[in-house]
Write a structure and sequence with these properties.
Blueprint lengths: L8 H12 L5 E3 L2 E3 L1 H14 L3 H14 L4 H13 L3 H8 L6 H13 L3 H14 L4 H13 L3 H14 L4 H13 L3 H14 L4 H13 L3 H14 L1 H11 L15 H14 L6 H18 L4 H6 L7 H19 L5 H6 L10 E7 L6 H12 L5 E7 L7 H9 L2 E4 L5 H10 L4 E4 L9 H5 L5 E5 L13 E4 L15 E4 L30 E4 L8 H13 L4 E5 L3 H13 L7 E4 L4 H7 L5 E3 L8 H9 L3 E4 L8 H9 L5 E2 L2 H13 L1 H14 L8 H20 L7 E2 L3
Parallel strand pairs: 3-4, 3-6, 4-5, 6-7, 7-8, 8-9, 9-16, 10-11, 10-13, 11-12, 13-14, 14-15
Antiparallel strand pairs: 1-2
Helix pairs in contact: 1-2, 2-3, 3-4, 4-5, 5-6, 6-7, 6-8, 7-8, 8-9, 8-10, 9-10, 10-11, 10-12, 11-12, 12-13, 12-15, 13-14, 15-16, 16-18, 20-21, 24-29
Length: about 725
């Protein structure tokens, strides 16, 4: 008995190549293929061997021999898409009839090419031809989510499930849309339906994990996450990375993120866009989570910063900061420079200049850069050298050029690893390294943890403790950092006179616009708050809505923020009986023009938990009164520090009721406001808040006193700078 020999794909391809060159017919499984079909068969084989360029050449030959074959055109488009040549793939599809399927394929290519608006247009056109077309409806939902049109995406994916109830991916997409809209219970149901149809689909299992997490069913979420890791490690990692639900972990450490941290991370993301349902859950969870970190873990800097946005026990915030500092210390263990400084004796300042280094990622059009460049320029060059170390390259800007001109040296560390950056600072003999940003975006606390300078301190930046043993001092004032809080911080306090703030006393105010230029009504009271939207929270916003209700014709003027945060703020206003049209959003603009438009507002309303910082200084410089509320934590007291330094205790409220009453009185007594505004404007010329050169002299004295103490071999200790 004879058996047919098994022909491998490789042998089949070799035989085909040999025949194609002779013009002789090619037999495949008993069939005689035409040359065009033979080239197509070769291309199909090459695709399965992942030889895409060769496959494309074969399909090109097939198309040249038999133009317009739909199978060939689709195969060419497929290979081109795999090669990421999306425009060419789209062109390849043009030879097909204009059907819903072709348009859906074009939409998929447009999504892959980040042409989201084009993808949505193509999906809409496909659904006109076939309202139940699966791929078109599927891609339409993806396009809407990518464009941030989450409510429309939810409606789309609900229709997808109605039309295709047996498709696991339809239920998955609906769950994903429900997650994005904060409908966690509904999302859990959709993901469960999807998993029943496709039990091993990793993204569905991860969606269920996130839904369980956001419903605070942490034990069930941990179990499912462990099962999913066991089934598909790489798929689990890919999901977490793409969803950005881990707070900065990378590589293998990503798999060690507890679901409680995922919950906090997602809740913090929602806080930044003014979506507040999880705030109470976060406040309840943070203490126990922080305790767990204190016992065994470490935290990413983002969580330490984000905790300041919540009205919680400052001790919890300090513990999170300490966990963040521990993580930085662990990262810096291999290149720590403590021994470097212990072996190099301190050099007294007599007869030489102190070298002061300033470390920040914000030497750009940013509140840090805009407020500190003036300090750099004003330092006494007979006593100090000033070096700026930049951690982030944002490209050219006027602020950057000012900083470069104001410093003795400007060093871009953005392209250096943290180890090299720390060694560079140490090698340049910096005596005192001043961190201007703390735990904000783009910072690298591991550089400071390596101890590149013998004395290290923080000023402005993150309004809370660093929690770090590698930060010796904090430049502050007695209001935001009362003496009774001193023992609670690892760093020592240096109390500056009047206020911790530094301002740019040369700031230019542009031409004054009209209200209509700013999109404001010509009449009516204008409350404003130009704080970033992440600082907005339910209590202050509810107070503002009561003010709008109590002051006929008034509006609230806010920073533009993101589309998601604007949508959420409008929904919050509507839920409290205020028409969203009474919220006016101010687009970003250059600082002189932004400062000038403050003239169109009547009263700046500060946020409660995390006050305005440089934003308040800009408003006060423009002559706009700033009403603030004195809280308990540093972040909720810094607004009062600026307002009191300007000389206006009547603009500092003791509590929410007092804040609301003061705002309502000013809005309903125009004569009092008319008398107040010129006083605020006049104070700019006399207040210590804007006597920037005097404030720099105070800071210089602080540098010299802490350095002298270090040279005497004394440990850092809190002290005050007299006027």
């Amino acid at each position: 008995m004879h058996t047919q020999p098994v022909v491998t794909e490789s042998e089949r391809r070799k035989a085909l190549l040999a025949r194609l060159g002779t013009g002789l017919p090619f037999m495949d499984n008993g069939r005689v293929l035409s040359p065009g079909a033979a080239w197509f068969s070769l291309g199909d084989t090459l695709v399965r061997e992942a030889r895409l360029e060769a496959a494309l050449a074969a399909f090109d030959e097939s198309d040249a021999l038999a133009p317009g074959n739909p199978r060939v055109l689709q195969a060419r488009a497929y290979v081109l898409s795999k090669l990421r040549r999306y425009r060419a793939a789209t062109e390849a599809l043009q030879g097909l009839p204009r059907t819903a399927s072709r348009l859906a394929m074009e939409a998929d290519l447009a999504l892959s090419d980040s042409r989201t608006t084009d993808a949505l247009r193509l999906c809409d056109a496909a659904l006109v031809l076939d309202a139940r077309h699966y791929e078109a409806r599927l891609n339409r939902g993806a396009a809407l989510r990518s464009l941030g049109r989450l409510v429309e995406a939810l409606d789309n994916d609900q229709q997808l499930v109605i039309d295709h109830p047996g498709q696991a991916l339809a239920h998955y997409n609906l769950g994903d849309a429900q997650l994005a809209n904060g409908q966690y219970a509904a999302a859990l149901h959709s993901f469960t339906q999807s998993q029943q149809l496709n039990p091993r689909h990793t993204r569905t299992r991860m969606g269920r994990t996130i839904a369980l997490t956001m419903l605070c069913r942490f034990d069930a979420a941990e179990t499912l996450l462990a099962e999913t890791r066991a089934l598909d490690l790489e798929g689990t990692k890919d999901y977490l990375l793409q969803a950005a639900l881990a707070i900065g972990f990378s590589g293998d450490a990503l798999f060690d993120v507890p679901v409680r941290e995922i919950y906090l991370s997602q809740a913090m993301v929602r806080q930044r866009v003014c979506e507040w349902p999880e705030r109470d859950g976060v406040k309840a969870l943070l203490p126990s989570f922080t305790q767990a970190l204190a016992e065994s873990g470490s935290a990413e800097s983002g969580l330490a910063f984000d905790s300041l946005l919540f009205d919680i026990d400052p001790a919890v915030q300090r513990s999170l900061a300490a966990a963040t500092a521990r993580r930085a210390e662990c990262s810096a263990t291999d290149f720590a420079l403590r021994r470097f400084w212990s072996e190099r004796p301190p050099v007294p300042r007599a007869g030489r200049r102190l070298r002061i280094g300033f470390l920040s990622p914000d030497f750009r059009a940013h509140p840090v850069g805009d407020s500190h460049w003036r300090q750099f320029a004003l330092h006494d060059r007979s006593r100090f050298e000033v070096v700026a170390y930049s951690l982030f390259d944002a490209g050219p800007s006027q602020t950057l050029e000012r900083i470069r001109a104001a410093c003795d040296e400007f060093v871009d560390l953005s392209r250096l690893l943290s180890e090299a950056a720390a060694q560079r600072i140490a090698a340049e003999g910096i005596d005192i390294l001043v961190d201007l940003s703390g735990y904000t975006q783009h910072t690298r606390p591991e550089i400071l943890a390596a101890r590149p300078a013998p004395l290290q301190l923080q000023h402005m930046g993150t309004p809370g403790s660093s929690g770090a043993r590698f930060i010796d001092y904090r430049l502050t004032d007695r209001l935001v950092s009362p003496p009774e809080h001193e023992g609670e911080w690892p760093e020592k306090f240096v109390w500056l006179p009047h206020t911790l703030w530094l301002a740019d006393d040369t700031q230019v105010i542009g031409p004054t616009p009209t209200r209509s230029d700013c999109g404001l009504p010509d009449d009516g009271f204008v409350f404003c708050c130009f704080n970033t939207h992440q600082k907005l929270e339910p209590e202050s916003f509810a107070c503002w809505m009561r003010l709008l209700a109590g002051v006929t014709g008034s509006v609230l003027w806010l920073a533009e923020g993101s589309a998601a945060s604007r949508r959420n703020l409008c929904a919050a206003a509507r839920s409290q009986g205020i028409e969203p049209t009474r919220l006016v959003f101010a687009p970003g603009m250059a600082l002189p023009e932004h400062t000038a438009r403050h003239a169109c507002a009547d009263l700046f309303l500060d946020t409660f938990v995390y006050n305005a910082g440089v934003t308040a200084l800009i408003a006060l410089w423009s002559g706009l009164p700033v009403l603030t509320r004195l809280g308990q934590a540093m972040a909720s007291r810094m607004g009062a520090s600026a307002v009191l330094a300007l000389g206006f205790p009547e603009l500092v409220a003791a509590d929410t009721a007092d804040y609301e009453a003061r705002a309502l009185r000013l809005a309903s007594h125009p004569e009092e406001l008319a008398a107040l505004r010129p006083r605020v404007a006049a104070a700019r010329a006399t207040s210590p808040l804007f006597r920037t050169e005097e404030r720099v002299r105070h800071i210089e004295r602080a540098y010299e006193m802490m350095w002298d103490r270090y040279c005497r071999g004394e440990a850092p200790a809190s002290f005050a700078i007299d006027e």
